Amino acid sequence: MSISESYPPAFRCVINDGDPQGTAKVEPVLLHDKEIDIPVIDLERLDKEILTEACREWGIFRLENHGVPLELMSRLQEISESLLSLPFENKRELFAAVKSPLSYFWGTPALNRSGDALKRGTQASNVTMVEGFNVPLSSLSKLPASTSCGDDDAAAQHSQLESFRVLMEEYGRHITRIAVTLFEAIAQTLNLELSGDKRSEYLSESTGLIRVYRYPEAAGEALGMEVHTDSSVISILKEDETGGLEIMKNEEWFRVKPVANTLIVNLGDMMQAISDDKYKSVEHRVKKKDMKKERHSVCYFVFPQRDCVIKSSNYKPFTYSEFEAQVQADVQSLGTKIGLPRFTPKSPLYV
Ligand SMILES: O=C(O)CCC(=O)C(=O)O
Ligand SMILES: [Fe+2]
Fold first, then answer.
1. ipTM over the 0.90 cut-off
2. Residue 196 CA, ligand 1 centroid: distance in Å
């Protein structure tokens, strides 16, 4: 199998010839993309002042001493890479064949609630150079255990899938622990009242979702993920050593350098709303320039309980379900997410 047979057909000309039609570029690339050091938070010695400053001024930080075993991180990376390097058709069938709530997507990270790529309105021809698996953590147990029927290839794939499930469950437990610890610390810096069920309404562990991404190698410049903010409360990223993540700070784009054995935490739109705009949901994108290597990352997202009403002074009261429905409607009709301005009475984009 040639390497490109494992990629979606829509990626193949960009991989081989660069991007003459500009299909993978959906916004002008700004020139001033320099490297930047983001704040560092030590999870074993949480410093409230550094955390407050990181949330207020950056909306993103690097996490050290996170307690996820390195062995688990590298095994997870290995199995994800191996599943993502299967032939394209094979990946399409992978989760469908075992009737699982996990899904395979490509060309856009914008998915509907079943994990299928959303058809994008006016920019339907735009393909971003990313593919991956969508893994709702609470559904992992529904992935059937390995069966030994079928040919050798099928049996090998089932056993890979079983290892993937076991590793994901273990990683999911660690990353959920980290998200809860960080959310409780952030809530303290905001003097948020978390009595009763309030913590699990704002950050509902059962909504945890993991995306395993592959960004192909590409000649020239390719956009892996458009500029966006995450809709989550908190997102936690594990990236490989390739680089490509960029953040917007003071109206400029900066590259975030990968640092081995650390995680990157960014605040999402729900955290911004819960904090009454004291903390921000950082704008970011993934851009690859003359990368001879593919890039792999694993991203965890966690959301509020679907029907929990988020009240704050700058937004009309809304539930996460309403927010998600609005995002999906905008992606389908406009080709892009609008996000919080849809809920901001002062914004011209308010609905
Ligand atoms: O892969 C990455 O580095 C970032 C992914 C991301 O921003 C997202 O999934 O929202
Ligand atoms: Fe993101």
1. yes
2. 33
